[in-house]
């Protein structure tokens, strides 16, 4: 029953009644009226033409209502139908007894329809229409007013209809306003629901993203087992402890987080020394200057990485390379620090073994060379059994080569020291003139033997630098002997020493075979040999310039080279002069 | 009077080289040994004019022998010359701090060795 009712409701939309539905009551009233005329003897047709016109108009109105129902775009004109109805009822009333007819009551139906339309103007239309319909018998001259009372009736009844129309119009207006309000409310609700759905789906999406990010972080965190990663707050209290930290130091995350401080795992003495070195930085905690020293660089926003000693819970120690960075919140304020450390025990061991190996090799190579050179000298100096010139010459060759081997050992040892950053400089204030002159003088015999002229150009004024005279001499020797090696018979090597405002400049220029431009940038690499060197079978292993550059760099100087193949090469060494260096240092 | 010399070096060839050079120059080599302990024993027993010690030796090192000899007041006259493969200033000053009279780096020239010993003896007189 209920289902049937709803089906009917669906078909006959009550919300937006069609013109045909609105016409239905009038049509039904007319049908009843016709039935009454046919069956009740006292109800008679007084004017058949008017009655017929009324019936025809009503049929026409109903048909029109049907048309309007089928064509929704013409709905605005549907109000014509009740107007036609009014005329139809007016005619029918006039044809069934005029003012005596009972069918005048039907007028209320189209009046309600008209009055329910939106504008207040329809109240007037309803009033005018209804009076027109009621006055029709007089208009068409079917009857004339009998007395004043009848006239009053002709005015009073439309007046009532005017009130009815006003009330209906107002009610319809209110109900429409309510309907609109309800619709707006429903729309709002719909929009809010839609927004809630969107928000929920966004939330779901970002939650999925967050979860995946969280999984990633957890994965990475758990995967770092060879480096210890420790997070602390600004006081050093540990709040994050990765598996690497457990592996390196012992305690599990549960045992360390929130229960111990990061400096509990450091050597107190080391922290104290560092704090003193930094002059007790005003850091995160006044109570623990060691911790402040530990995080000082990170606090200032610099990423610091240096070697420290970690102490395990059992008291054993291990050397680590530790990087400290600060953690910041959304506002950019420091909320703690991150300590990432890697065990460098093995690296240290390798470095130690390398040093040991280099030391051993250098000793083991020098000892036989000592014997070779010593016995060669014994042979040459034996007054009792003097050697022939030829034998002396042969021994000279052997001696020269033994010295060459010795230099190579020295160079290798020195290169190893440079690499491990442990090459000692015994610096004091030295005059470069003396060093340069000494290097030139010691090179003269070799140059003379090779038929090369050495020119020395040393400025009169003194150039004092802070440096190791032995190493600076070695650098000059290397450059000069290189120049001699790469210059053909009859060439010239010019060694000069000059000054600029701040620097002393030593240049060694030759008229030799030169170096290809493409090879200039590799010149200072270990074991690199220029193609001109190998092509011309100039002996050497490619360490001289590496060493020279290392020496110059260690003296805060710079090396430069200009060369043209077949024309010659010019090396220059720039060293900071002492006065300037002192001023800069202060 | 010729100077008496004790030589200590674990390398036989070097020991021999030193011995030949010094004998030729007229010095008297009273003992040549190949480790630090033997060197100390020989110096204590023979009280030579000069002890030539290799720094890197089995047993006591040349530096240790040098220090121990310097603790003996009766051996104050013994000149000690250290021989070492280490040519850097730090090793040299370590040797001199330990009480050595002179320090010579390997490889050395026999001529120079003799010259240095001659200087030592002339300073004595």
Distance between the termini of chain A: 107 Å
Structural class of chain A: alpha+beta
Order of helices and strands of chain B: EHEHEHEHEH
Q: Could you give the distance between the termini of chain B? A: 11 Å
What's the CATH topology name of chain B?
Rossmann fold
Using only CA atoms, what is the Rg of chain A?
58 Å
Count of discrete alpha- or pi-helical segments spanning 4 or more residues of chain B: 5
| Biggest sheet: strand arrangement of chain A | 2-1-5-4-3
How many strands, what sense, and barrel or not for the largest sheet of chain A? 5 strands, antiparallel
Quickly give the structural class of chain B. Answer: alpha/beta
- Quaternary organization: heterodimer
Instruction: Tell me the fraction of residues in β-strands of chain B, as a range.
Output: 15-25%
Number of strands of chain A: 12
- pLDDT averaged residue by residue of chain A: 86
Q: What's the tally of helices of chain A?
A: 19
- On the 0-100 scale, what is the average pLDDT of chain B? 89
Features:
heterodimer, A: 586 residues, alpha+beta, Beta-Lactamase, 4 domains, five-stranded mixed beta sheet, 12 strands, B: 125 residues, alpha/beta, Rossmann fold, 5 helices, 46% helix, 21% strand
Can you walk me through this structure?
- The complex is a heterodimer of chains A (586) and B (125).
- Chain A is an alpha+beta fold.
- In chain A, 56% of the residues lie in helices and 15% in strands.
- Chain A has 19 helices and twelve strands.
- The longest helix of chain A is centred in the first third of the chain and has 76 residues, at 148-223.
- Chain A is rod-shaped and about 185 Å long.
- Helices cover 46% and strands 21% of the residues of chain B.
- Chain B contains five helices and five strands.
- Chain B is globular.
- The mean pLDDT of chain B is 89.
- Chain A binds chain B through residues 362-363, 366-367, 369-375, 377-378, 381, 406, 410, 424, 426, and chain B through 11, 13-14, 17, 20-21, 56, 85, 87-90, 106-111.
